[in-house]
Design goal:
Length: 542
């Protein structure tokens, strides 16, 4: 069933501006606040193909038109937020319009992408999936608690080539100046586009908040633009209707950074055009001096702000959003950029999708034996001081080879870094960010910890492993435990309980992966059919 939304009760200062902007369309806009809102999710294409998820679960309906991997769904048929496939990272629950900015940015494997305001990670997980493990995602969030939530969401998604940072944007972008292929600024905003979903957004709103947000946004876009390499592109987006936070911010950016040009959005025919400077000035909706000045400049200099796009809730199935696509002049054409595959792990080597060829066939008899034929060579971290140890070789032999395949394991081992007893897979080309200025919460995929001569695999490693064959339990250790999604023991595992699996009593003792439908949820230690719970305590349910 779709949910009833809150009716009207909207601030007068808001409705006045909207009616001036929309004119004859205003009643349809106003009526849209009483219409039911729709639920949508975005499939994690690192894990599963959209069509495969559709076959696996009921209730997925038509595609969200502006994405390849978003679907509307019927919550009464598929309670997506309570299904263990959610914890297995098969999809992200995301409002349909919020899928547009990452789709417009269209990151390509191998690119260096910065998501400047990334928490909780709706767009960052989309960018990470689009990169397919090649290139680099720097996901930044100014507020530390929100940055921690961002990290978790990226880890649930199995994204292995991300740096997660918590920094004031200017401190980060000055270190990245001129280096990024693509930047997303999904700016903090007054949230008018969320009024239909979220009564709190209405309570929090005021004309002063619009002006405060606009001031922050004017600064953010300049910082973001400075991180772009020549030829690099940028998407600016908000979930608000206020022109001060939308077209006027773009006008300000174009005036201050003449090296940027405003592009046509590829999906423009699905959305409404932005509002021109002339239109906004003539309906007198510029509530502050900076906005007025930016729009005057735009009119004088002929900036075509109609190239921006607006997602109006009365015109499409989604909430209110705004987006603009820009490009820094010069440089090479971003759309035909060749992938740098030198160090990349091909999808089938460290594969993702159920149904794709997997090299994750367990290698019988390997468990616990530290006989990795290929001793991992030191990455930068190792060279910096901590020699790669027997435990690291054990880790490669006991975890990476059986679960990811030999080739992928070797590729990972070559790039592994050891820092303070933790093993990381550091993304290609990750910059060394100066501490003090930028808090780096995660510098790549955390593989696990070295404890004396033992290796403890991380939750993030479990999530980044390819989906395994359902019958791997009897093929040797480590095993994948594969209960049905509806099995009560899955819920018990996610609560952190020790769980009994008598059907695996004959399997060798040791580390194993608990999966649903072959998709990893986390680690456990199996001893005679009892699974000691190793699900990350901070992720446990209820
Ligand atoms: N992109 C995110 C996603 O898709 O999940 C949503 C980002 S939300 C619209 C904006 C984010 O900007 C919030 O997480 C907020 O904490 C952060 N923020 C707030 N004030 C900020 C500032 N002055 N500079 C940068 N980011 C800020």
């Amino acid at each position: 069933m779709e949910e009833q939304t809150q009716a009207a009760g909207l601030p007068q200062a808001f409705t006045e501006v909207m009616s001036r902007i929309l004119g004859d369309e205003y009643p349809a806009f106003s009526d849209s606040f009483t219409l039911p809102r729709r639920n949508s999710l975005r499939v994690n294409t690192l894990r599963i193909r959209p069509e495969a998820l559709r076959e696996l679960v009921p209730g997925l309906m038509e595609k969200v038109p502006w994405t390849e991997d978003g679907f509307y769904y019927d919550r009464s048929l598929f309670p997506a937020s309570r299904h263990p496939f959610y914890q297995a990272g098969l999809y992200y629950l995301q409002e349909a319009s919020a899928m547009a900015p990452a789709a417009i940015l269209a990151p390509q494997p191998g690119e260096r992408v910065l998501d400047l305001c990334a928490a909780p990670g709706g767009k960052a997980t989309a960018i990470g999936a689009a990169l397919r493990g090649e290139g680099l995602l720097i996901a930044n969030e100014i507020r530390l608690p929100r940055a921690k939530a961002l990290l978790r969401n990226l880890e649930v998604f199995g994204i292995r080539n991300a740096l997660v940072t918590s920094a004031v944007p200017a401190r980060l972008t000055e270190q990245l100046a001129g280096t990024m292929d693509a930047v997303l600024v999904d700016a903090p905003c007054s949230g008018e586009g969320m009024f239909r979903r979220d009564p709190e957004a209405v309570r929090d709103w005021s004309p002063e908040k619009v002006a405060e947000c606009a001031a922050i946004q004017r600064d953010l876009v300049l910082r973001a633009a400075d991180a772009l390499r020549p030829g690099g592109r940028m998407v600016y987006s908000t979930c608000t209707f206020a022109p001060e936070e939308n077209e006027a911010v773009i006008a300000h950016l174009l005036a201050e950074r003449p090296e940027l040009e405003l592009l046509e959005v590829p999906q423009a025919d699905l959305f409404a055009p932005g509002l021109s400077a002339g239109q906004l000035l003539s309906c007198g909706v510029a509530r502050d001096r900076e906005t007025e000045a930016a729009l005057q400049t735009a009119r004088e200099r002929g900036f075509d702000l109609t190239r921006c796009v607006r997602l109006w809730p009365h015109r499409l199935s989604g909430e209110g959003h705004f987006a603009a696509l820009l490009r820094r002049r010069g440089g090479r054409d971003v759309s035909v950029k060749k992938k740098d595959r030198r160090n990349s792990l091909r999808e089938r080597e460290y594969g993702h999708s159920h149904g794709l060829p997997s090299s994750g066939q367990p290698d019988p008899g390997r468990r616990g034996k530290a006989k990795g034929k290929q001793a991992p060579r030191g990455g930068r971290g190792a060279a910096a001081g901590e020699a790669l140890s027997a435990a690291q070789r054990q880790m490669t032999a006991a975890f990476l080879e059986p679960f990811a395949g030999k080739d992928a394991a070797e590729a990972i081992a070559r790039r592994m870094e050891c820092r303070h007893g933790q093993l990381f897979l550091r993304p290609d080309g990750a910059p060394e960010l100066r501490g003090g200025q930028v808090n780096v919460l995660r510098g790549g995929l955390l593989l696990g910890e070295l404890k004396k001569d033992r290796f403890e695999p991380s939750q993030a490693l479990a999530m980044a492993l390819p989906a395994g064959p359902a019958d791997s339990a009897d093929a040797g250790a480590p095993v994948r435990i594969v209960p049905d999604a509806g099995d009560e023991r899955v819920a018990a595992y996610l609560r952190g309980e020790t769980v009994s699996f008598p059907e695996y009593a004959e399997c060798p003792s040791g580390w194993c992966l608990l999966t649903v439908g072959g998709y990893a949820l986390g680690w456990g230690k199996l001893v005679r059919g009892q699974l000691k719970n190793k699900y990350l305590p901070g992720w446990r349910q209820g």
